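Q: Could you fold this chain for me?
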Amino acid sequence: MKSVQWAGRAVAEKTDSSILSLGVIVAALGYFVDAYDLILFSVVRVPSLRSIGINGQALADQGALLLNVQMFGLLLGGIAWGILGDKRGRLSILFGSIILYSLANIANAFANSYTEFLICRFAAGAGLAGELGAGITLVAERLPPARRGQGITIVACFGALGSVTADFVAQQLNWRLAYLVGGAMGLALLVLRLRALESSLFQALRSAQPGVSRGNFFSLFTQRERFIRYISCILVGLPLWYVIGLLITFSPEFAGLLAIKGQISAGQAVVFSHLGFAAGDLLSGYISQALGTRKKVIFGFLAALGGAITLFFNVYGADQVTFYGVCFLLGLTGGYWAVLLMVSAEQFGTNLRATVTTTVPNLVRSSLIPVTFFFQMFKPVLGMLGSAAVTGLLALVAAVVALQQLNETSHRSLDFLE
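A: Sure. Below is the predicted structure, expressed as structure tokens.
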């Protein structure tokens, strides 16, 4: 038992003692489902759209629109679920988001028109938006500081493995069954969550300070220091989605320009990079916990990621094994995602923590939009390789500058308010 003091009142706080507690397990499986769905759409995009009569250039154009609609759902859902999590509780997100996601994926399995696809992808994105942030918030608040990093690391690793599973399932089953698998996993997870416990920090806040403003999203923009903390959390994650959304997604095209021997599959590049992310998350989480620092670990991984990106553009004439090895290295050095999630949860008070921790991952994912913008802007002058290299440099510089604006939060108590 630990005492939480707000306005002179002590409230008993119960914490989980094990990093394999039910809260960690349901959060990890939730992120697994989240990552499964995001990668599944990319993998089954072509066969699923062809089955409803879309072919040729429309595969790319209408597929891109579907992806943007899903990302828009993630953005809106992230804000809505985050506010709800701070107002009604962390478990409210975990239940509501997985129900919406599961129903959307099951419906997507029976979609027979492009309009139905649009609706299902938007709903799935909105549902998924709450999974990661709510899970991280719950784990951060239920585990003691000495175990917090380990628990969040487990959650992040499971997410990376969800991406690998999506590619495997898509190779074994047709696209409709693959979506049904995602929906079924969500419903099974819903049953498991019936036994999950609410964050005692949130319960303490609600009972001890009923008049405190909770989940005020706009308050993140009204105070300069708070806004800098918030935007910095997002910018630190920029290089991750540069790697995933640009280098890995368009790996076949980059491989062609680099004269890689043999045919490169984007699906295999995803698998190797996400295996790297899983290993990197384990490594970064362990080092962060062992050294008692978040910022130094993230800086070290950013420096290593810069080296891996440089190597990516200098494997001219290599074979498939080498190229996929570099994809794994990109994931490994980009595996500071777990530590970034910890930092985001630890930067803000209990009355805004769910809002921040739910919106930050979704805004990091949406950072692919400005990344793509700069990539397209530089491409006519620098070519595809040069444009990608410059865009990557800008992303790394932005992340390093943003990292300097954040507080060191290792072993920080989370019983504070904004």
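A (continued): Residues 1-13 have pLDDT under 50 and may be disordered.
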